[in-house]
Amino acid sequence: MAPPGSLRVAHFTDTWVPRRDGVVTALETLTTAMDQLGHDSLIVVPRHHGQQRSDGLLRLPSVPCGIAQFRLGAWPRHRHVEQVARWRPDVLHVHTPGFIGLLGVHAARALGLPLFLTYHTDLHAYVDAYRLPPHVLSGLLRCYARRLGVRPPRTDHSWSPKVYRHTVVDAATRLLYGSADTVIVPTDAVLQRSRVAPTFPRLRVVPTGVALRTAPPGSRATFRRRHGIDVGDPVVLYVGRLNREKGIDLLTGGFGELLRSVPNARLLLVGSAHDGRWVTKLLDRAGITDRTVRTGQLPPADVAQAYAASDVFAFPSRTDTQGLVVQEAALAGLPIVLADPCLHNTGPLAGVGMLTDDHPVAYGEMLARLVRDPGMARSVGQAAKERAERNSPQAYGQTMAAVYGESVARQTLVTGLLSA
Q1: Percent of residues, the chain, with pLDDT higher than 90
Q2: How confident is the model at residue 68 (pLDDT cuts 50, 70, 90)?
Q3: SS3 letters across the chain
Q4: d(CA 371, CA 374)
Q5: Residue 148: exposed, middle, or buried by beta-carbon count in 10 A (0-12, 13-18, 19+)?
Q6: 43, 116, 118, 410 from 180: Cα distances, Å
Q7: Is residue 418's pLDDT more than 70?
Q8: What is the per-residue pLDDT across 283-331, written as a single tens digit (0 to 9) for each?
Q9: Distance between CA atoms of 117 and 178, rounded to whole angstroms?
């Protein structure tokens, strides 16, 4: 039996394990923390052959789209809404704007339940990075509007493809997020990058809590031995997808500069690549192929060992809204090098780590400073660790439970007034 005051929250995400990304990590953290507080969670996801079945998962049919284990979930239908309704949720929370996310918005309207949406992603950067055709985006926008029973927003085709893509994204964002009871953003970086997000009527900034990935004793030597890295080689680590929007070109160029002064340094790339040939070309162009280790996507336990095996953490992205791996690296005590002043100045780690210009020479020089000065690296890493420890998953769960509760109480009050 559920404890008094417990909540039933149905989450909707277009990305789920075995795929790994920030949305998956954030949602796993949130649902675990909510469970510890006595609340119940249902996660609606695209079905994938590599997934484990669970009572807490509603797995809908899906098809692969050829991008880093990403799958397109089923188009929202009435039977899917009925499946959600049978679970009897109090709140619906949408985390992504794909078909599963659209189902969440549609279900909230159909069931008359409070709707939360989290703005996890810099959508403009993604549609540009993957060069999505504007006419495809415009067609999807019309389909979304029809599914929600509203008139499709008008968009101006006369602009350049890039401007038109952004116009369509803004219109889709207003369509989905504008109907939410509450919009959650993880950092103020979202508000600085998005033209639309600051206009939402009820907006809450709630940083995602991050847990320490613990590694067993001896992990540094074990991981290095497994991947052919010498004991004395300084290691620069990157964790995340090896995609264009992540600033991989800046990292490879910067590491090439680092090798000029620290020729025994190694670059460790942990994460999947949508276009492996593009990554290979970047490594060849920078002349760092033989000094780079590419592991592909690793399970969480191995990622923890990668942090333990490294000396500096590189985060070259200029499009991330929170950078959960930055917090993970901080908890591991690694000094961090960023190139995005917006992210550096906001969020739970605001002001810590080393900020540099988004130019390979400047980025490489900052990496070299930390590699050549272990004392400075320890000091920077310790400051980041102390700050990251304040942003615990438990505090994150408590904050979100309170925000959900406020919404449920508000709806109960309005319903009572209308029925009086």
Answers
A1: 72
A2: low
A3: CCCCCCCEEEEECCCCCCCCCHHHHHHHHHHHHHHHCCCEEEEEEECCCCCCCCCCEEEECEEEEEECCEEEECCCCHHHHHHHHHCCCCEEEECCCCHHHHHHHHHHHHHCCCEEEECCCCHHHHHHHCCCCHHHHHHHHHHHHHHCCCCCCCCCCCCCHHHHHHHHHHHHHHHHHCCCCEEEECCHHHHHHCCCHHHCCCEEECCCCCCCCCCCCCHHHHHHHHCCCCCCCCEEEEECCCCHHHCHHHHHHHHHHHHHHCCCCEEEEECCCCCHHHHHHHHHHHCCHHHEEEEECCCHHHHHHHHHCCCEEEECCCCCCCCHHHHHHHHCCCCEEECCHHHHCCCCCCCCCEECCCCHHHHHHHHHHHHHCHHHHHHHHHHHHHHHCCCCHHHHHHHHHHHHHHHHHHHHHHHHHHHC
A4: 6
A5: middle
A6: 18, 6, 10, 14
A7: yes
A8: 999 999 999 999 999 999 999 999 999 999 999 999 898 899 999 999 9
A9: 10
- Kindly tell me the burial class for residue 222, based on how many C-beta atoms sit within 10 Å of its own C-beta (0-12, 13-18, 19 or more): middle
Strands 70-73 and 62-67: antiparallel
Tokens of 22: 């920030």
More reliable by pLDDT, 316 or 70: 316
- Which residue type occupies 180? A
Instruction: With cut-offs at 50, 70 and 90, classify the pLDDT of residue 198.
Output: low
| Residues 185, 187, 191, 194, CA torsion sign | negative
- For the residues 378-398, what does the mean pLDDT come to? 96
Q: What is the spatial distance between Cα 317 and Cα 260, in angstroms, rounded to a whole number?
A: 23
- Using CA atoms of 83, 412, 409, 405 in order, give the dihedral in degrees to the nearest 10: -10
Instruction: Place 2 in a pLDDT band, splitting at 50, 70 and 90.
Output: very low
